[in-house]
Amino acid sequence: MPLLKNGEIMPDSWTVLEGDIPSPLPQGSIIVPFGYLSEIDINTITQPLGVSFPCDQDIDVLKPYVDRLELIVLHFPAFKDGRAFSQARKIREQLKFTGELRATGHILSDQYQFLIRVGFTTVSLPETANIKSWQQAMNDFTEAYQPSVLGEKRLSGLRWKV
Question: Could you tell me the domains of the chain?
Fold first, then answer.
């Protein structure tokens, strides 16, 4: 699947592990399901580590691991399910996670700016995605009313400057 970061297509260098935990672990950057974290000693893993985190879990369970993780993948199981938006914002603001935050699943290009505003840094696009549409979506809006993790001025605050 192509990855979109800052409106540009990037190669995905991460290997997703599913099923039984292989021994030894493959070389390179690995993404493990959240359930693996309690089964392995992450302090002995020397390569970059990422986790695929389910949208039905409370993000507080990530606290013991967040300093060791370089990537957190949040899945949108359905277009109408926006829990990953809330999770992303909490991961950035409450857990102070500074690594890569990736969105995957049922997402539309219309949501791209909202994904960025809550803290996602990359989006895993399906092979059938209209990449041009996603790249154009980055510039759909120049001002925002809602607060974001980006810390920029909101349109509602600019009215006081007039």
Answer: 3-161 (3.20.20.70)
* Cβ contacts of 126 within 8 Å, gap of 6 or more: 1
Q: Does residue 22 sit in helix, strand or coil?
A: coil
Average pLDDT per consecutive 10 residues, the chain (162 residues; last block may be shorter):
87 90 86 89 88 95 95 93 93 96 90 87 87 69 57 57 52
Residue position matching structure tokens 């290997």: 15
Neighbours of 85 (CB within 10 A): 20
Q: Of 122, 128, 118, 113, which is closest to residue 148 (Cα–Cα)?
A: 118
The model's pTM is 0.84
**Cβ contact 125:131 at 8 Å:** yes
Q: Distance between CA 45 and CA 38 in Å, rounded?
A: 13
